[in-house]
Structure to design on (127 residues):
């Protein structure tokens, strides 16, 4: 089964992106005077150079934390190959879907479908 993970840990995020040849980036047309903008991961072989601008890790994580984002990612595809799937989600959304347990105090891990086995509800007693 393929699992997805969610984290807010800066080291985990940076390591995952760099191992796949990615760089921190933002969509050019969305930056403001203070930086910010829509965060993206720029993979060199995916195109998009005209839409994305590479930014520093400090700027990336400043925006990441200010916007209270979490990083949803996948380590491997269903067939066992390295995955590049990732997406930025709101931390509250990740937590609301049960995708938030401690990851070195900063983040969470999640498994698609909500994790482990669920207990069947107890039937109501008839009066």
């Amino acid at each position: 089964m393929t699992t997805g993970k969610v984290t807010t840990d800066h080291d985990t995020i940076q390591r995952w992106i760099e191992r796949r040849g990615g760089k921190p980036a933002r969509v050019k047309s969305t930056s403001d005077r203070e930086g910010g903008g829509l965060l993206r991961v720029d993979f060199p072989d995916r195109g998009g150079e005209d839409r994305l601008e590479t930014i520093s890790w400090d700027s990336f994580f400043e925006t990441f934390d200010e916007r209270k984002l979490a990083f949803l990612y996948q380590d491997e595809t269903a067939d066992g190959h390295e995955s590049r799937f990732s997406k930025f989600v709101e931390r509250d959304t990740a937590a609301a879907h049960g995708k938030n347990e401690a990851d070195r105090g900063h983040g969470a891990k999640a498994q698609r479908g909500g994790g482990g086995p669920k207990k069947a509800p107890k039937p109501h007693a008839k009066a």
